[in-house]
């Protein structure tokens, strides 16, 4: 058996007991053999170190994957929590805070008050501002209607004009201006449209999600007026 | 998970499956980190120690240092880990807590197989060069030398595991690879 064979068996873990004795003896006595052994042993350690580096890289990749999974898991958890909060807030908002879907309630109940005060007939040649205003109102040309109502007001108009002007503002979804006019009508309490004004004020409060205010108006309407009693009661129940 | 680990044999691991390598890493990770937490190293240090412990364990398996598992894989990892944690604490100049139970280090010797190599020696200059130029060899040479020196394969084992067809072909291929490696190191030394 050559020295090279001995080294081969040593590194392939296949030295017999006898070969091991010879191997150890040579290491002590043969410098050339010892150097050859040490070189190969160094190579073994170098390769092991190289392998360890490869393994370490793999483990670091696993770790990145694990962290990324955790991040995703966190994100999903976070999203789930966020979704729950949205649902909760929606539920809470719908049932407790807003009482109901105000937008729908407003849309379901709001109808522009019909022109019951000024009769426009075909062939009518009365070219007054009031007629023009109500023509514009009936054709839902609300901006023109407001201009005309304003012009009519300057000439000492009927007390229903502010109410229809408020209706025109509601048609333009300008609840603020409508609110001001309607409150004034209720406060003055001289118009024939006080009850109607209270009804529309209740609807505005609903649109503005002011539950307490809406309930006050509706209760006022139910207690003191006959106008829209049934509708007001239904609406009040929905708000409760 | 535990039952999967119990069924893993040395031979399974020696097949070199990346999937199994990953599975064992993941299955023991949390347990190890939980165990390491009491030594007050940073989380990053604990991850580092766990990886190194796992590599040492794996190297010992691949190099045939363990004939069969006498304990669970986690026990091997814990016992190697304790050594590495202690080492890390020393390197970090961390004062050892008076409560630190030094018996765990002694206990270590009982747990780890006597033939276990902990790889705590730094590479010599020659070994660093060998490692560097080993990395420049072709894939076939690296595979052949790795099978022989790292895995401790016999020529016959290599024939079984690779496409080499005869002992002479393996021997001559190995000689060529060794020669190339030497030449690369020598050429570099002469630069």
Description of the molecule:
The complex is a heterodimer of chains A (240) and B (191). The longest helix of chain A is centred in the first third of the chain and has 67 residues. Chain A is rod-shaped, with a radius of gyration of 46 Å. In chain A, α5 packs antiparallel against α6, α7 runs antiparallel to α8 and α10 packs antiparallel against α11. Chain A has 240 residues and is mostly helical. The termini of chain A are far apart. Chain A is built from 11 helices and no strands. Chain A folds into 2 domains: 63 residues; 137 residues, Tetratricopeptide repeat domain (Serine Threonine Protein Phosphatase 5, Tetratricopeptide repeat), CATH 1.25.40.10. Chain A is 77% helix and 0% strand. Chain B has 191 residues and is an all-alpha fold. Chain B has 2 domains: 110 residues, Rna Polymerase Sigma Factor, Chain: A (Orthogonal Bundle), CATH 1.10.1740; 66 residues, Arc Repressor Mutant, subunit A (Orthogonal Bundle). Chain B is built from 10 helices and no strands. In chain B, α5 packs across α6, α7 crosses α10 and α8 packs across α10. The model of chain B has no long low-confidence stretch (mean pLDDT 83). The chains are: A mainly alpha (240), B mainly alpha (191). Chains A and B meet through α3 of A and α3, α4, α7 and α8 of B.
